[in-house]
Write a structure and sequence with these properties.
The chain has 175 residues and is α+β, with helices and mostly antiparallel strands. Helices cover 30% and strands 33% of the residues. A hairpin with a 4-residue loop joins strand 5 and strand 6 (138-143). The longest helix has 21 residues, at 2-22. The chain is globular, with a radius of gyration of 27 Å. The N and C termini lie far apart (66 Å).
């Protein structure tokens, strides 16, 4: 019985301590006026310099990043040739993948979803190509040795039935 009382006292002490410490950052009302002193917003030079259209673009980009989640895997694989895989973890509602693109200063490869599916069975080994295969599905980009070390962007375009598009892109260096 004594053990239960000690546990209860300890638990109560932790609870009270938690409540007290969680209120530590809360401003107290001013004693003379009874009002909470106004909080001064911190200045952000970046926001001062942004024009309304830039802010709108940034907000749209943030929204797209929340709607689209892609994971790129550039770990070496036990296959011949060079490639990386990517997984579309989240796509915009009512949108499907329309095309994939590798774009750099030297190279611009664009592949539609339909062509990437064909490339899984009909693609020529050793050529630069996007492939969609497997049951997951697995998205891959195969590239020649000449592209190793090239810096560029993986660009994915999603399209809905009305023809509206949303784009996701990530800068990569081909390994």
């Amino acid at each position: 019985m004594n053990l239960k009382k000690n546990k209860m006292k300890s638990l109560l002490a932790v609870l009270v301590l938690s409540l007290v410490t969680s209120a530590c950052g809360t401003p107290l009302p001013s004693e003379s006026t009874g009002q909470v002193p106004p909080q001064v917003p911190q200045e952000n030079k970046e926001n001062k310099e942004k024009q309304p259209e830039n802010v709108a673009q940034d907000m749209a980009q943030e929204q797209q990043e929340k709607e689209i989640l892609v994971v790129v895997d550039q770990e070496p694989k036990p296959i011949e040739g060079n490639s990386f895989d990517f997984f579309i973890e989240q796509r915009p509602a009512d949108y499907s993948l329309a095309s994939m693109q590798w774009k750099s200063e030297k190279t611009d490869i664009v592949t539609t979803t339909e062509q990437a599916i064909k490339n899984d069975t009909e693609g020529i080994p050793g050529e630069n190509r996007f492939v969609i295969g497997g049951s997951m599905p697995l998205y891959s980009f195969y590239y020649k040795d000449e592209l190793k070390g090239e810096k560029g962007k993986l660009i994915l375009v999603f399209r809905n039935e009305q023809g509206n598009e949303k784009t996701w892109e990530k800068e990569l260096t081909l390994k």
